[in-house]
Protein backbone atom coordinates (compact mmCIF):
# COMPACT_ATOMS: atom_id res chain seq x y z
CA UNK A 1 0.00 0.00 0.00
CA UNK A 2 2.79 2.33 1.02
CA UNK A 3 4.79 1.54 -2.12
CA UNK A 4 1.72 1.93 -4.34
CA UNK A 5 1.24 5.42 -2.97
CA UNK A 6 4.89 6.24 -3.53
CA UNK A 7 4.66 5.10 -7.14
CA UNK A 8 1.53 7.19 -7.67
CA UNK A 9 3.18 10.30 -6.23
CA UNK A 10 6.24 9.69 -8.40
CA UNK A 11 4.05 9.37 -11.51
CA UNK A 12 2.23 12.61 -10.77
CA UNK A 13 5.52 14.39 -10.12
CA UNK A 14 6.91 13.09 -13.41
CA UNK A 15 3.90 14.29 -15.38
CA UNK A 16 4.12 17.71 -13.74
CA UNK A 17 7.89 18.07 -14.24
CA UNK A 18 7.60 16.87 -17.81
CA UNK A 19 5.05 19.59 -18.52
CA UNK A 20 7.35 22.17 -16.91
CA UNK A 21 10.27 20.90 -19.02
CA UNK A 22 8.21 21.12 -22.22
CA UNK A 23 7.19 24.65 -21.31
CA UNK A 24 10.83 25.57 -20.66
CA UNK A 25 11.80 24.12 -24.04
CA UNK A 26 9.19 26.06 -26.02
CA UNK A 27 9.06 29.40 -24.20
CA UNK A 28 11.92 31.67 -25.38
CA UNK A 29 14.60 31.87 -22.68
CA UNK A 30 14.27 35.66 -22.56
CA UNK A 31 10.72 35.26 -21.23
CA UNK A 32 11.68 32.77 -18.53
CA UNK A 33 12.55 33.73 -14.98
CA UNK A 34 16.23 34.62 -14.70
CA UNK A 35 18.23 34.62 -11.52
CA UNK A 36 19.81 37.90 -10.52
CA UNK A 37 23.56 37.39 -10.32
CA UNK A 38 24.68 40.98 -9.86
CA UNK A 39 27.32 41.15 -7.16
CA UNK A 40 28.05 37.44 -7.47
CA UNK A 41 31.66 36.33 -7.75
CA UNK A 42 32.29 34.41 -10.97
CA UNK A 43 35.48 32.43 -11.50
CA UNK A 44 36.33 31.48 -15.09
CA UNK A 45 39.19 29.10 -15.87
CA UNK A 46 40.83 29.55 -19.26
CA UNK A 47 39.76 33.19 -19.23
CA UNK A 48 42.71 34.29 -21.38
CA UNK A 49 41.11 33.41 -24.69
CA UNK A 50 38.13 32.04 -26.61
CA UNK A 51 34.94 31.27 -24.73
CA UNK A 52 36.56 32.03 -21.38
CA UNK A 53 37.29 35.63 -22.34
CA UNK A 54 33.82 36.15 -23.81
CA UNK A 55 32.07 34.63 -20.78
CA UNK A 56 34.10 36.88 -18.49
CA UNK A 57 32.97 39.95 -20.43
CA UNK A 58 29.36 38.78 -20.37
CA UNK A 59 29.20 38.09 -16.65
CA UNK A 60 30.94 41.40 -15.89
CA UNK A 61 28.21 43.13 -17.91
CA UNK A 62 25.67 41.41 -15.62
CA UNK A 63 27.29 43.09 -12.63
CA UNK A 64 29.37 40.15 -11.42
CA UNK A 65 32.82 40.33 -9.88
CA UNK A 66 35.23 38.38 -12.02
CA UNK A 67 38.08 36.09 -11.02
CA UNK A 68 40.14 35.20 -14.07
CA UNK A 69 42.27 32.07 -14.14
CA UNK A 70 44.64 31.30 -16.97
CA UNK A 71 48.09 29.80 -17.42
CA UNK A 72 49.00 32.51 -19.90
CA UNK A 73 49.56 35.65 -17.85
CA UNK A 74 49.71 38.13 -20.72
CA UNK A 75 46.49 36.88 -22.32
CA UNK A 76 44.75 36.86 -18.99
CA UNK A 77 45.81 40.43 -18.27
CA UNK A 78 44.44 41.35 -21.69
CA UNK A 79 41.07 39.89 -20.66
CA UNK A 80 41.28 41.82 -17.39
CA UNK A 81 41.80 45.06 -19.34
CA UNK A 82 38.98 44.26 -21.74
CA UNK A 83 36.59 43.57 -18.87
CA UNK A 84 37.53 46.83 -17.17
CA UNK A 85 37.16 48.74 -20.42
CA UNK A 86 33.79 47.18 -21.30
CA UNK A 87 32.19 47.46 -17.87
CA UNK A 88 33.69 50.47 -16.15
CA UNK A 89 33.97 49.92 -12.45
CA UNK A 90 33.83 46.16 -12.90
CA UNK A 91 35.68 44.37 -10.15
CA UNK A 92 38.04 41.91 -11.77
CA UNK A 93 41.21 40.12 -10.70
CA UNK A 94 43.47 37.93 -12.80
CA UNK A 95 45.44 34.98 -11.43
CA UNK A 96 48.05 32.93 -13.23
CA UNK A 97 47.54 29.25 -12.55
CA UNK A 98 48.56 25.99 -14.16
CA UNK A 99 45.48 23.78 -13.81
CA UNK A 100 47.50 20.62 -14.39
CA UNK A 101 49.22 21.28 -11.04
CA UNK A 102 46.87 20.26 -8.21
CA UNK A 103 48.89 21.92 -5.43
CA UNK A 104 48.96 25.15 -7.40
CA UNK A 105 45.19 25.05 -7.93
CA UNK A 106 44.63 24.67 -4.18
CA UNK A 107 47.16 27.43 -3.39
CA UNK A 108 45.66 29.94 -5.83
CA UNK A 109 42.14 29.01 -4.68
CA UNK A 110 43.14 29.90 -1.11
CA UNK A 111 44.52 33.20 -2.36
CA UNK A 112 41.23 33.95 -4.15
CA UNK A 113 39.24 33.21 -0.98
CA UNK A 114 41.44 35.63 0.98
CA UNK A 115 41.63 38.38 -1.60
CA UNK A 116 38.18 38.25 -3.21
CA UNK A 117 36.01 35.97 -1.10
CA UNK A 118 33.75 33.03 -1.82
CA UNK A 119 33.05 32.09 -5.41
CA UNK A 120 29.36 31.91 -6.37
CA UNK A 121 29.67 30.72 -9.95
CA UNK A 122 32.55 28.42 -10.86
CA UNK A 123 33.03 27.99 -14.60
CA UNK A 124 35.38 25.13 -15.43
CA UNK A 125 36.11 26.17 -18.98
CA UNK A 126 39.84 25.64 -19.61
CA UNK A 127 40.58 22.80 -21.95
CA UNK A 128 43.27 21.47 -24.24
CA UNK A 129 43.26 19.14 -27.21
CA UNK A 130 46.05 17.20 -28.90
CA UNK A 131 44.03 15.95 -31.84
CA UNK A 132 46.19 13.04 -32.95
CA UNK A 133 45.35 9.34 -33.31
CA UNK A 134 45.68 7.53 -29.99
CA UNK A 135 48.90 5.62 -30.67
CA UNK A 136 50.55 8.79 -31.95
CA UNK A 137 49.70 10.77 -28.83
CA UNK A 138 52.54 11.03 -26.28
CA UNK A 139 51.84 9.94 -22.68
CA UNK A 140 52.58 13.46 -21.49
CA UNK A 141 49.66 14.82 -23.55
CA UNK A 142 47.30 12.03 -22.37
CA UNK A 143 48.09 13.01 -18.79
CA UNK A 144 47.88 16.75 -19.38
CA UNK A 145 44.55 16.37 -21.18
CA UNK A 146 43.02 14.42 -18.29
CA UNK A 147 44.54 16.81 -15.74
CA UNK A 148 43.23 20.01 -17.31
CA UNK A 149 39.94 18.85 -18.87
CA UNK A 150 38.82 16.69 -15.94
CA UNK A 151 40.97 16.47 -12.80
CA UNK A 152 41.16 20.25 -12.45
CA UNK A 153 37.35 20.20 -12.08
CA UNK A 154 37.81 18.04 -8.96
CA UNK A 155 40.28 20.46 -7.36
CA UNK A 156 38.32 23.64 -8.17
CA UNK A 157 35.03 22.15 -6.97
CA UNK A 158 36.67 20.90 -3.76
CA UNK A 159 37.96 24.44 -3.24
CA UNK A 160 34.80 26.40 -3.91
CA UNK A 161 31.77 24.14 -3.39
CA UNK A 162 31.88 24.09 0.44
CA UNK A 163 31.10 27.85 0.66
CA UNK A 164 28.26 27.41 -1.85
CA UNK A 165 26.79 24.60 0.24
CA UNK A 166 27.03 26.69 3.39
CA UNK A 167 25.02 29.50 1.78
CA UNK A 168 22.92 27.12 -0.32
CA UNK A 169 23.66 29.41 -3.23
CA UNK A 170 25.93 28.85 -6.18
CA UNK A 171 26.47 27.31 -9.58
CA UNK A 172 29.07 24.96 -10.98
CA UNK A 173 29.40 25.12 -14.76
CA UNK A 174 31.34 22.49 -16.71
CA UNK A 175 32.24 23.41 -20.25
CA UNK A 176 32.46 19.88 -21.67
CA UNK A 177 31.82 19.06 -25.32
CA UNK A 178 29.70 16.98 -27.65
CA UNK A 179 32.89 14.87 -27.50
CA UNK A 180 31.81 14.16 -23.92
CA UNK A 181 28.81 12.25 -25.30
CA UNK A 182 30.27 10.65 -28.45
CA UNK A 183 33.57 8.97 -29.17
CA UNK A 184 35.45 10.51 -32.10
CA UNK A 185 38.44 9.19 -34.02
CA UNK A 186 41.48 11.40 -33.43
CA UNK A 187 40.14 12.64 -30.11
CA UNK A 188 40.48 9.61 -27.84
CA UNK A 189 42.04 11.25 -24.79
CA UNK A 190 40.01 14.42 -25.31
CA UNK A 191 36.79 12.35 -25.41
CA UNK A 192 37.87 10.40 -22.34
CA UNK A 193 38.42 13.64 -20.44
CA UNK A 194 35.14 15.17 -21.62
CA UNK A 195 33.11 12.01 -20.88
CA UNK A 196 34.68 12.25 -17.43
CA UNK A 197 33.64 15.89 -17.06
CA UNK A 198 30.07 15.01 -18.06
CA UNK A 199 30.00 12.13 -15.58
CA UNK A 200 31.39 14.34 -12.85
CA UNK A 201 28.72 17.01 -13.43
CA UNK A 202 25.94 14.40 -13.39
CA UNK A 203 27.18 12.81 -10.16
CA UNK A 204 27.72 16.15 -8.51
CA UNK A 205 24.13 17.12 -9.36
CA UNK A 206 22.93 13.85 -7.84
CA UNK A 207 24.86 14.62 -4.64
CA UNK A 208 23.39 18.11 -4.44
CA UNK A 209 19.88 16.68 -4.79
CA UNK A 210 20.63 14.05 -2.16
CA UNK A 211 21.93 16.74 0.21
CA UNK A 212 18.83 18.85 -0.47
CA UNK A 213 20.96 21.82 -1.55
CA UNK A 214 18.41 23.16 -4.00
CA UNK A 215 20.15 26.54 -4.24
CA UNK A 216 23.34 25.11 -5.71
CA UNK A 217 23.00 24.25 -9.38
CA UNK A 218 25.15 22.62 -12.01
CA UNK A 219 25.17 23.09 -15.75
CA UNK A 220 27.08 20.95 -18.22
CA UNK A 221 27.66 22.34 -21.70
CA UNK A 222 28.14 20.02 -24.69
CA UNK A 223 28.77 21.98 -27.87
CA UNK A 224 29.91 20.75 -31.28
CA UNK A 225 33.10 22.40 -32.64
CA UNK A 226 33.36 26.13 -31.96
CA UNK A 227 35.26 28.64 -34.11
CA UNK A 228 37.73 29.71 -31.43
CA UNK A 229 40.87 28.42 -33.14
CA UNK A 230 41.16 25.48 -30.74
CA UNK A 231 39.81 23.14 -33.42
CA UNK A 232 41.34 24.90 -36.44
CA UNK A 233 41.23 22.59 -39.45
CA UNK A 234 38.44 20.33 -38.17
CA UNK A 235 35.58 19.88 -40.60
CA UNK A 236 31.93 18.89 -40.80
CA UNK A 237 30.25 17.11 -43.68
CA UNK A 238 26.70 18.33 -43.14
CA UNK A 239 26.90 21.84 -41.75
CA UNK A 240 23.12 22.05 -41.97
CA UNK A 241 22.87 19.40 -39.23
CA UNK A 242 26.16 19.82 -37.38
CA UNK A 243 27.42 23.32 -37.90
CA UNK A 244 30.50 25.00 -36.50
CA UNK A 245 29.44 27.39 -33.80
CA UNK A 246 30.29 31.04 -33.38
CA UNK A 247 31.70 31.84 -29.94
CA UNK A 248 29.33 34.77 -29.15
CA UNK A 249 26.32 32.56 -29.91
CA UNK A 250 27.65 29.79 -27.66
CA UNK A 251 28.27 32.28 -24.86
CA UNK A 252 24.71 33.64 -25.23
CA UNK A 253 23.40 30.12 -24.76
CA UNK A 254 25.68 29.34 -21.81
CA UNK A 255 24.79 32.50 -19.92
CA UNK A 256 21.11 31.89 -20.61
CA UNK A 257 21.45 28.32 -19.33
CA UNK A 258 23.11 29.49 -16.12
CA UNK A 259 20.58 32.23 -15.47
CA UNK A 260 17.65 29.86 -16.04
CA UNK A 261 19.26 26.96 -14.12
CA UNK A 262 19.33 24.66 -17.14
CA UNK A 263 21.12 21.44 -16.17
CA UNK A 264 22.38 20.42 -19.59
CA UNK A 265 23.01 22.43 -22.73
CA UNK A 266 23.76 20.77 -26.09
CA UNK A 267 24.40 22.92 -29.14
CA UNK A 268 23.39 22.72 -31.91
CA UNK A 269 20.10 21.03 -31.05
CA UNK A 270 20.91 18.11 -33.39
CA UNK A 271 23.35 16.90 -30.69
CA UNK A 272 20.30 15.94 -28.58
CA UNK A 273 18.97 13.93 -31.50
CA UNK A 274 22.24 12.04 -32.03
CA UNK A 275 22.46 11.44 -28.28
CA UNK A 276 18.95 9.99 -28.29
CA UNK A 277 19.75 7.83 -31.33
CA UNK A 278 22.88 6.36 -29.78
CA UNK A 279 20.78 5.41 -26.78
CA UNK A 280 18.24 3.37 -28.72
CA UNK A 281 20.11 2.08 -31.78
CA UNK A 282 22.32 -0.99 -31.99
CA UNK A 283 25.96 0.15 -32.09
CA UNK A 284 26.37 -1.18 -35.65
CA UNK A 285 23.45 0.94 -36.89
CA UNK A 286 24.68 3.96 -34.98
CA UNK A 287 28.13 3.49 -36.54
CA UNK A 288 26.68 3.30 -40.03
CA UNK A 289 24.84 6.58 -39.53
CA UNK A 290 28.02 8.07 -38.04
CA UNK A 291 29.90 7.05 -41.18
CA UNK A 292 27.45 8.96 -43.36
CA UNK A 293 27.60 11.99 -41.09
CA UNK A 294 31.41 11.78 -41.29
CA UNK A 295 32.05 12.07 -37.57
CA UNK A 296 35.30 10.07 -37.79
CA UNK A 297 36.60 12.32 -40.55
CA UNK A 298 36.04 15.62 -38.73
CA UNK A 299 39.60 15.61 -37.34
CA UNK A 300 41.41 14.52 -40.54
CA UNK A 301 42.77 17.98 -41.39
CA UNK A 302 42.99 19.30 -37.83
CA UNK A 303 45.82 21.72 -37.13
CA UNK A 304 44.65 23.22 -33.83
CA UNK A 305 45.62 26.38 -32.05
CA UNK A 306 49.29 25.70 -31.33
CA UNK A 307 50.15 24.89 -34.91
CA UNK A 308 47.94 27.49 -36.59
CA UNK A 309 49.50 30.42 -34.77
C1 LIG B 1 50.91 33.39 -24.06
O1 LIG B 1 50.46 33.26 -25.38
C2 LIG B 1 51.26 33.98 -26.32
C3 LIG B 1 50.63 33.85 -27.69
O2 LIG B 1 50.56 32.53 -28.07
C4 LIG B 1 52.66 33.46 -26.31
O3 LIG B 1 53.46 34.24 -27.19
C5 LIG B 1 53.22 33.53 -24.91
O4 LIG B 1 54.47 32.92 -24.88
C6 LIG B 1 52.30 32.84 -23.94
N1 LIG B 1 52.78 33.03 -22.60
C7 LIG B 1 52.89 32.02 -21.77
C8 LIG B 1 53.41 32.37 -20.41
O5 LIG B 1 52.59 30.88 -22.06
C1 LIG C 1 27.37 6.52 -32.30
O1 LIG C 1 27.72 7.28 -33.41
C2 LIG C 1 28.42 8.48 -33.12
C3 LIG C 1 28.60 9.21 -34.42
O2 LIG C 1 29.47 8.50 -35.27
C4 LIG C 1 29.75 8.13 -32.49
O3 LIG C 1 30.44 9.31 -32.21
C5 LIG C 1 29.48 7.35 -31.23
O4 LIG C 1 30.71 6.98 -30.66
C6 LIG C 1 28.64 6.11 -31.56
N1 LIG C 1 28.26 5.45 -30.33
C7 LIG C 1 28.65 4.21 -30.05
C8 LIG C 1 28.18 3.66 -28.75
O5 LIG C 1 29.33 3.56 -30.81
TrEMBL record:
One of its GO terms (molecular function) is oxidoreductase activity, acting on the CH-OH group of donors, NAD or NADP as acceptor. InterPro entries: NAD(P)-bd_dom_sf, SDR_fam. Keywords: NAD, Oxidoreductase, Signal. Gene3D superfamilies: NAD(P)-binding Rossmann-like Domain (3.40.50.720). Residues 1-25 form the signal peptide. One of its GO terms (cellular component) is lipid droplet. Belongs to the short-chain dehydrogenases/reductases (SDR) family. PANTHER family: PKSB, RETINOL DEHYDROGENASE 10. This is Epidermal retinol dehydrogenase 2.
Amino acid sequence: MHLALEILVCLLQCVWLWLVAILKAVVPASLQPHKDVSGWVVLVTGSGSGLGRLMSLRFAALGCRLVLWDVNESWNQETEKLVQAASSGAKVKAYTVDLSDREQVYAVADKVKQEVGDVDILINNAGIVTGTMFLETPDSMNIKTMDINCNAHFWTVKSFLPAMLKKNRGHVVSIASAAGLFGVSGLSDYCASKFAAVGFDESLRAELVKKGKTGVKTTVVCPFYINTGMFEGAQTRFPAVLKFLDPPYVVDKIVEAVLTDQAMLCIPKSVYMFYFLRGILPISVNQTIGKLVGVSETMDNFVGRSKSQ
